[in-house]
Amino acid sequence: MVGADGVHSNVRRLVFGDDPAHKRSLGVHAGIFTVPNEWGLHGTAVMYNEPGRVASVAAPHGGDAIVSLFFTADGLRYDHRDVEQQRRIVAEAYAGVGWQVPRLLELMWQAPDFYFDGTNQVFLDRWSRGRVVLLGDAGYAGGPGGNGTGLAVVGAHILAGELNLARGDHEVAFRRYEERMRPYVATCQKQAAGSPEYLVPSSWKKINERNRFFRAVRYFPAVKHLFKWMATRTATAIKLPSYPSPTEVGSGPGVAAGRRRGAPHPRG
Ligand SMILES: Cc1cc2nc3c(=O)[nH]c(=O)nc-3n(C[C@H](O)[C@H](O)[C@H](O)COP(=O)(O)OP(=O)(O)OC[C@H]3O[C@@H](n4cnc5c(N)ncnc54)[C@H](O)[C@@H]3O)c2cc1C
User: Is the CB of 136 under 6 A from ligand 1?
Assistant: First the structure.
């Protein structure tokens, strides 16, 4: 059984327990929603910062605009099914913030696709127990800037490949999956650990430093390369193994799906 049910994984909770150490908050929360594009943005995004608060409006393809409100808050407690409560949390976090934020908050109340969550990383000593294995955010969420989609897709590729290679011996396959994935996951999670300060700078000084860095990208090729390296180093931190197709591996005595129902497992 593969638990690929995301950062708040129920499978993880049921099989590995509800240990708070498994899911570590990075202290940043986000409200994200779509609004009418009142600003005429097309192929661009604008961003406004105050310490601990970021508001951005983006319209990558024209059309409706996507609003992202990232803010820092420790120990927020809320009901994940209570969307109105979550909108209130965002409204309170942004009360008194300038720029277009009052208008964005007005529009937030009508947004049909309002999304709210904290940013978390997931750490477990093992990703499998018995015949259950965790995949993607459920087992090793990277956090912002931690290449979470890449981790999930690469993890799926390696897990499927190892299950195939091990001809159904899940213990061998799960062990190899962990061995291959652990260093990659560690690299991605390490990169994300410093991201809250970059995503939501905590002081005007840090906002100005970040802005200077962005401006420098335009004028200095070396900074441009540094930026590109930062943006891609997690994606390229693993050499993707190629696996034979199931037909190449063939069916054998260890292939669980190929065993007759009730037949003894070859390893007893
Ligand atoms: C705002 C935001 C921005 C992000 N930006 C990036 C980015 O730029 N680059 C990047 O690489 N990553 C990014 N990520 C992270 C990325 O989205 C995740 O790492 C990735 O989606 C993990 O994939 P997953 O399949 O493990 O989990 P998910 O994508 O979370 O999928 C889990 C699925 O399981 C389903 N599910 C849960 N419980 C059950 C159940 N009981 N029964 C049935 N289904 C269930 C859920 O509905 C969901 O569809 C971002 C995340 C967020 C929140």
Answer: yes
88 in a structural domain = yes
Q: Using the atom order of ligand 1, give the atom closest to the CA of residue 141.
A: 19
In a domain, residue 13? The reply is no
Query: Hunting for tokens 């396959």 — which residue is that?
Result: 173
- Structurally, the chain folds into a number of domains equal to 1
| Distance (Å) from CA 136 to ligand 1 centroid | 8
Nearest atom (ligand 1) to Cα of 150: 11
What is the three-class DSSP state of 179? helix
C-alpha neighbours within 13 Å on the C-beta side of residue 240: 12
* pLDDT interval class at 245 (50, 70, 90): confident
pLDDT classification of 263: cutoffs 50, 70, 90: very low
42: domain CATH number is: 3.30.9.30
The label of the residue with tokens 């993880």 reads 12
- Cα 161 to chain centroid distance, Å, stands at 23
**Residues composing the chain:** 268
Q: What's the angle, vertex CA 144, arms to CA 141 and CA 146, rounded to 5?
A: 60
In three-state secondary structure terms, 72 is: strand
Q: Give me the domain span that covers residue 31.
A: 27-119
Nearest to 156, CA basis, from 49, 29, 243: 243
Amino acid at 75: G
**Any residues with CB less than 8 A from the CB of 36 and at least 6 apart, and which?**
64, 65, 107
| 99-151 tens-digit pLDDT | 999 999 999 999 999 999 999 999 999 999 999 999 999 999 999 889 999 99
